[in-house]
Write a structure and sequence with these properties.
With 601 residues, the protein is of the alpha/beta class. It has 18 helices and 16 strands. The chain has helices spanning 30-48, 53-68, 71-97, 124-142, 150-166, 177-186, 189-207, 275-281, 303-322, 334-348, 378-391, 396-406, 408-421, 430-435, 443-455, 493-496, 545-551, 559-569; strands at 228-233, 237-242, 249-250, 254-257, 286-291, 327-332, 354-360, 393-394, 441-442, 465-466, 469-470, 480-485, 507-512, 530-536, 553-556, 574-575.
């Protein structure tokens, strides 16, 4: 068979090659334009409390336009209005004939505004029923309109609910029987006391002082009082090693990574409800990260800095001090998300120092982040970036205000009623004092967090970069203990549950009673606590959230005990405790816990 000689192809005509446009020269006014835009955005954010007016305009325009084009929806709303008017009239007639007539509408289970028996007396029963029926109608009007985007519908429903909560009959003297009775009993003194409380709180806010009552919980004494030593300090964290209380400890230490939006001692509140102290008493060597409160000079710190100077630096120190090859790691809220990123990066790089992961109310998928998504879209993030651009950071009060708006009837208007109208200042407890002790977030990190995780969902979809290379949750093989909370508005448990979809690791998922904070601070002996729990073996099939809920075992008591049993099963035999610091290896005991960073404001 003769050899076949390849026939060379003629060269491609030059005209067939795609032309590459040269990079455009930078406009001389680009820098000035960006500065003006950012400055203008910062002014708008300051005037609106960080709420984007563009998002509100877009949302209401979307809703109103589609509602105007929906005659069927309009007809339904007219019919609903007529039925609700009829129900109210029927209730009014029955109220004249009966002592305690059946209501025309019941409040939602979480709505406690009309529980006092005084609201069953005329005319306040009619006022409260009219308000609840009107609230229900507006919910129907702002939802279910064809063509409106899901995000815009949520914004419109939320904004309408805020207006209704503002004008609820509970907020006015003329329409609140409980308040009127209080005024009569005190001879009007409650209004004087309320005004005094109002001016006191306004003065403290203007001076940047903490709320009244925080002084009863000094850090390092009443809270964050578990004995220990700061064994590492860098520009972002202090690492605290806690003194052992048992003769032997498990070989694997535990590293606790809290969220950086608040101080770490949510897990070290009063001695009786401190998770850190309790875990130490169970025979574990406990380390905790205390994040520094960022300053304007830290504006360039990003997620890589938080990972490198936080968990990675802590793991280096723990290994040097204890000699342990593997460490259990616990991450709470944003700290749990950072732990998941860290674990994925370590698995990618062949770093096997993590013995297990415990994720508390921590999201790894952000497609359904709950009501917090109301404050996160392109326009909103752009406005927040402008605010952070001018300061170098985001104030914790900004995020705290968003959380309060999610439950405005409980967290804002009930406080206005009780403190400023009834003159009764609610005493602070340790959790409330901690909640008032927030931290800032640097510009680069928070912008990256919002854009890459919330808007882009890069972590769940394998695009998130650590050290310039992508990480995937599927690479994580360490066993996981994952906790969601039933009424969590910040990290909804069904969103937390989605870790099952991204990792083949063995996962024990636990659903605790309570919310984002109270569900986690659930010490043994706390009355009324319960949880559901179910394990999935490594490489086992992933249930959806509803199937899991139907199959999970319901138990009473604190979930801490279940976690301790699981942690024991992942640990080696007890041994004498390691030294408290290792100065010969560069980790001396610097100062006593809780350190200095937790005190910075």
């Amino acid at each position: 068979m003769p050899n076949r000689v390849p026939i060379p192809r003629p060269p491609e005509p030059i005209s067939a090659k795609p032309a590459r446009a040269p990079n455009p020269a930078p406009e001389p006014l680009d820098g000035v334009a960006e500065t003006l835009d950012r400055a203008a955005g910062a002014l708008v954010a300051q005037a609106t409390g960080g709420i984007s007016p563009a998002t509100l305009v877009q949302s209401f325009s979307d809703w109103w336009t589609h509602l105007a084009m929906s005659p069927g929806k309009q007809l339904t709303l007219v019919a609903k209005s007529a039925r609700k008017t009829q129900r109210l009239a029927d209730f009014a007639m029955r109220a004249q004939e009966q002592q305690d007539p059946a209501p025309a509408i019941e409040p939602l289970p979480q709505d406690r505004r009309f529980r006092d028996p005084a609201w069953k007396q005329a005319p306040y029963n009619l006022i409260s029923q009219a308000f609840l029926l009107n609230q229900q109608w507006w919910h129907a009007a702002t939802t279910g309109v064809g063509g409106v985007s899901a995000h815009h519908e949520q914004v419109v429903e939320f904004a309408t609910r805020q207006v209704l909560d503002m004008f609820a009959p509970t907020n006015f003297v003329a329409t609140n029987p409980v308040l009127r009775q209080r005024i009569l009993e005190t001879g009007g003194r409650c209004l004087v006391d309320g005004a005094r409380h109002l001016f006191e709180d306004l003065g403290r806010t203007m001076r940047g002082e903490p709320p009244v009552g925080v002084q009863a919980f000094p850090v390092g004494e009443a809270v964050a009082a578990t004995p220990g030593k700061v064994v590492l300090r860098n520009q972002l964290i202090e690492l605290i090693q806690y003194a052992p209380t048992t003769e032997t400890v498990r070989h694997e230490p535990v590293l606790i990574i809290p969220a950086w939006i608040m101080k770490y001692y949510i897990l070290d509140l009063s001695p009786e409800n401190s998770l850190i102290a309790w875990l130490r008493d169970q025979g574990y060597t406990v380390f905790a990260i205390s994040w520094r409160n960022p300053r304007p000079a830290d504006r360039g710190m990003d997620m890589d800095d938080y990972r490198r100077l936080g968990p990675m630096a802590a793991l280096d120190a723990i290994g040097a001090i204890t000699g342990a090859a593997r460490t259990h790691a616990l991450g709470y809220c944003l700290g749990g998300t950072l732990l998941a990123i860290t674990a994925a990066a370590m698995a990618r790089d062949g770093d096997e120092r993590l013995a297990s992961l415990t994720l508390l109310a921590a999201q790894t998928d952000f497609t359904e982040p709950g009501e917090l998504s109301l404050f996160i879209d392109e326009a909103q993030v752009n406005l927040l970036e402008s605010m952070m651009w001018s300061r170098g950071y985001l104030e914790s009060a900004q995020m705290g205000g968003a959380f309060q708006l999610l439950r405005s009837s409980d967290l804002i208007w009930s406080r206005v009623l009780s403190t400023y109208l009834m003159g009764q200042r609610e005493p602070l407890n340790d959790l409330m004092a901690w909640n008032a002790d927030g931290t800032r977030m640097p510009y680069a990190m928070h912008s990256q967090y919002l854009r890459r995780l919330f808007l882009g969902n890069d972590l769940a979809e394998g695009r998130f970069l650590a050290d310039g290379r992508p990480v995937t949750l599927s690479a994580v093989n360490a066993p996981m203990f994952v906790v969601g909370a039933e009424t969590d508005h910040v990290a909804p448990w069904r969103s937390v549950f989605k870790i099952h979809l991204f990792s083949d690791s063995a996962i024990r998922f636990l659903l605790a009673s309570g919310g984002h904070n109270a569900g986690i601070v659930s010490e043994p002996g706390h009355a009324g606590r319960h949880y559901r729990v179910l394990s999935r073996p490594a490489h086992g099939p992933a249930l959806d959230a509803e199937d899991w809920l139907a199959r999970a075992e319901a138990r009473d008591g604190s979930w801490w005990l279940d976690w301790k049993r699981w942690l024991d099963s992942q640990s080696g035999e007890p041994a004498p405790p390691p030294p408290l610091s290792a100065p010969e290896r560069g980790y001396p005991a610097r100062i006593d816990a809780p350190g200095s960073y937790v005190r910075e404001r």
